[in-house]
Specification:
The structure is a homodimer.
Chain A lengths: L6 E6 L28 H12 L5 E6 H10 L8 E4 L5 H15 L4 E6 L3 E2 L2 H16 L3 E6 L10 E4 L9 E7 L4 H10 L2 E11 H11 L1 H11 L14 H6 L5 E6 L3 E2 L4 H6 L11 E4 L5 E3 L4 E5 L4 E5 L3 E6 L6 H10 L7
Parallel strand pairs in A: 1-2, 1-4, 2-3, 6-10, 12-14, 13-15
Antiparallel strand pairs in A: 4-9, 5-11, 6-9, 7-8, 7-9, 8-10, 15-16
Helix pairs in contact in A: 3-6, 3-7, 6-7
């Protein structure tokens, strides 16, 4: 990347979605799945991070329960670059802890925060946006990467752009809007003044920690304590997202647009868009009269007849058959599996 | 049953349908499946036959390849009552061979021929119809059991009833019509003069063999030869169904109606009508927004979301997902599996 203070990458490897059950389980959440290509999403994020920085400056934050799985998935991760959350507390404590740890290594670091469960098709465009974001961050802004909406999605947070752009292809963020209803989402889309919040951030580490201490002092104290060697301090960290705890309250928040084939892969339908018909498994697929049908997993032969847009997820102990149009409703399936007394499968 | 000459039951255990793939395979055809209840269709037929006659008068005809499976499925079958077809040759040679063997045991037998891959819900009504058919058969008729159509099915043969009924709730058959087209099937249904040919027959054994010798002498010679101890004679038996070879040409053919909850279970859709949602497997089923969905087989948890009328067939090496409305088209699936180089799964 361009010159200036060295910058570090933090990969967030926590999270326990149920949207990809039965392929995702509590001990193998979404980021460990190869939902778009041959590599897991986490591994894809790692590989992208490594195009930005050498391994000594790529950090991974993960809850204790996933630490072993992260190490196995990322053989290139340096042992002392894995930051373990004593227990899951949402994104604000996780990110704050990583930044506090980095601050002890490198007082002048610029930090790039990346979720590990999204897909980015265009690695070059991604790298260019991160470079711009770094330049903007060196001007003291807390920078979000923002995605131009192509539909009135109700599952994302939106960033409202201020009127006066910041030199270097950025805009000030004047409002954070969490998951709007459909009518509002349509207005946002029409207005052209909103971007999706992709959960990717770039900032001067010192500037972020100052802002954290100001707007979220409990998170700051707890995570600084853990970083200084007192894991017990973690217990005082509230369970809160970075957007709520920090970004919505911080000053000088900016957004740099990212146009790099980003997808948060929030459902089987989204995964199916990125998949070949036989994705993720080694068995034969026989599909007749079933355009848009996708099979995930499994070594068996799977035959589908006259079921357009069906998703079949074949795992050794559980099988899911769902229409793509309904794949946002996976929570009801997971709840029914729990109600049937099979929480062991979740 | 009522008095008169002793009667024997012949169960036809051959046939190799592909309609129930992947649960049915070449070595485990439909009659070995528990498609309606806990027992296999073959076992259900055996149990029904045993309400008609003692084990010494219940015979099973099966091709050599299935003989072992038949013995395992029917522990009550006497070893010397299993008639083995040296190779599959359709129903005329199979039935003729069984009747020729029976004739050597019992010159005055009345024979009841039953397919093994249908379901009959009302065992008492079945028994009553067979008793009527036996009385009619003792008057020298070759008797078919006929099912009153409840829809213009195009997959069955039809029997046209003659104008003057035979005393004892029977009618002469004046025409055999193989699988009509839809328009003809609708006319048949409206006319009230047609019954479905259920492939169940009752006759005096001697009378059948006389008629066989007259209208199908090649079949008669070949099967008499095998029954007399020359298995090589089988090679001269043509591959032909009983309807074509005998019934359409025979004189004095009659039909006795059967109203006993009969179903030939010709498709997954038909099997689904007889199944409970978790039929045939031991795994949990989680079904949401999917009325009419049915799972066959498997020990895994199967979850189905928003796919009404879907059929899932879960076997260790192959999985089928099909809409019930399309389950008549299984041949295309089986052909595609073969084309994919996986004939080993058929």
């Amino acid at each position: 990347m361009s010159g200036g203070d060295p910058f570090h990458v933090v990969i967030l490897a926590g999270g326990s979605g149920t949207r990809f059950w039965p392929m995702s389980r509590a001990k193998r959440p979404k980021q460990f799945l190869a939902l778009a290509g041959r590599r897991s999403l986490l591994r894809g994020t790692w590989d992208r991070a490594r195009t930005l920085a050498p391994a000594e400056r790529v950090w991974v934050v993960a809850p204790r329960a996933l630490a072993g799985a992260v190490r196995r998935e990322l053989p290139g991760l340096r042992r002392d670059r894995l930051v373990v959350e004593p227990s899951p507390r949402d994104t604000a404590p996780a990110i704050a802890l990583a930044c506090a740890v980095i601050a002890r290594h490198d007082a002048r670091a610029v930090t790039v925060v990346l979720p590990s469960d999204h897909v980015i098709r265009d690695a070059d465009a991604f790298k260019r946006s991160v470079a711009v974001a770094c330049r903007v961050a060196r001007g003291k802004a807390l920078v979000c990467l923002g995605i131009k909406p192509d539909r009135p999605a109700i599952g994302f947070g939106y960033l409202k752009l201020g009127a006066r752009p910041i030199p270097g292809v950025a805009s000030p963020v004047v409002e954070f809007v969490e998951k709007p209803d459909a009518a509002r989402a349509r207005r946002f889309l029409r207005s052209g003044r909103y971007l999706w919040n992709a959960g990717m951030f770039v900032w001067q580490n010192e500037r972020f920690l100052e802002e954290l201490a100001r707007v979220a002092p409990e998170v700051a104290r707890a995570t600084a304590g853990v970083a200084a060697g007192s894991p017990g301090a973690w217990g005082k960290a509230p369970r809160i997202s970075l957007d709520y705890a920090v970004m919505e309250k911080a000053s000088q928040v900016a957004v740099v647009p990212l146009d790099a084939g980003w997808d948060d892969l929030g459902s089987w339908d989204a995964a199916a868009r990125h998949a070949s018909p036989g994705s993720g498994g080694s068995g034969e697929r026989v599909m007749i009269g079933s355009p848009g049908a996708v099979v995930f997993g499994g070594k068996r032969v799977v035959a589908i007849l006259d079921l357009p847009g069906v998703v079949v997820v074949d795992t050794p102990d559980a099988l899911l058959v769902v229409s793509r149009a309904s794949s946002e409703k996976m929570k009801s399936v997971v709840e029914a599996v729990r109600a049937a007394g099979r929480a062991d499968l979740l």
